[in-house]
Amino acid sequence: AAVDFLAAIAPGNGTTRREQLRNSFAAIDEYELALRQRLEAGLGALPGVVVHSRAAHRTPTLLVSIPGRKTRDAYEFLATRNVLAPAGQFYAYEPYRRLGIDDDGGLRLGLAPYSTADEVDRALAALADFLAG
């Protein structure tokens, strides 16, 4: 049932379930890429926010830090605005060490096929409010 659900997201003219899955995953990738680019552009306009990955081919999850601010505070503030953006190192000790980020220095902004442009805009607005406060 789960595979059928995924295959039906954007089956295109696929005649086999495998082709339908391929079409659906391509559509999901395209959609998530557009959302990620929107989020990255918005984060780039916020003063003091550092985005730690710009790899072209990756999951639609961003790791950001805010030098001089605790991301735990950002996480708690965003939660009051119904934005889930957890803070911490998520057991990624080595990348954090190499990036020079302390254990509390990262904020994770993740997107999914069900995320919307409005949610991205709401997250950006909430983060702007946090930075202004």
- Mind describing the biggest β-sheet? 3 strands, antiparallel
Average pLDDT for all residues: 90
Structural class: mainly alpha
N-to-C SSE string, H for helix and E for strand: HHEEHHEH
Radius of gyration: 17 Å
Spatial sequence of strands, sheet with the most strands: 1-2-3
Q: What best-fitting shape do the alpha-carbon axes yield?
A: elongated
**Could you give the count of β-strands?**
3
Distance between the termini: 47 Å
Classify the beta-strand content into a percent band.
Answer: 5-15%
Secondary structure tally, helices = 5
Helix content: 40-55%
Poorly predicted runs are none
Provide an overview of this structure:
Strands 1-2-3 form a three-stranded antiparallel β-sheet. Helix 2 runs parallel beside helix 5. It has helices spanning 2-7, 17-44, 71-80, 93-99, 117-132; strands spanning 50-51, 61-65, 107-110. The N and C termini lie far apart (47 Å). The protein has 133 residues and is mostly helical. The model has no long low-confidence stretch (mean pLDDT 90). It is elongated.
In short:
With 133 residues, the protein is mainly α.
Please tag this protein with its features.
133 residues; single chain; mainly alpha; elongated; 3-stranded antiparallel sheet
